[in-house]
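Protein modeling request. Please complete all fields; requests missing the sequence field cannot be processed.
Requester role: graduate student
Desired output: 3D structure, token encoding
Chains: 1
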Amino acid sequence: MNMNNMKIIDFGTACPCDPTGKRGLSEILGTPFYIAPEILDGKYNEKCDLWSIGVITFMVLAGKAPFFGRNDSEIYASVRTGKFEFSCPSWKTVSSDAKDFISALLTLDPKKRLSAAEALDHKWI
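Delivered output (125 residues):
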């Protein structure tokens, strides 16, 4: 068994992926801190999962969420801006490659966001 692989799963809202992109997803599902902005607009594809990976990576390295608020509405507003910072002291010891990986995943425009294959091929990984 390879112990170097991590899998994060939740099949509660899973559905088959349409590789043609003709069948978009529209139901608003997800946890506020991890939700991609395009989900809030009700039109998204598999790239929303890459956003969530960016959030998780940010949280693992910084110990806090990149988008925050006092309630769900404020968190959603923060997510919609897509603005985050590498400003807390813990970021001083994090490589520029790791920051680039996170930034490439937390890109507002899903068309410009890394795909799963591109993320796996990123030099930080």
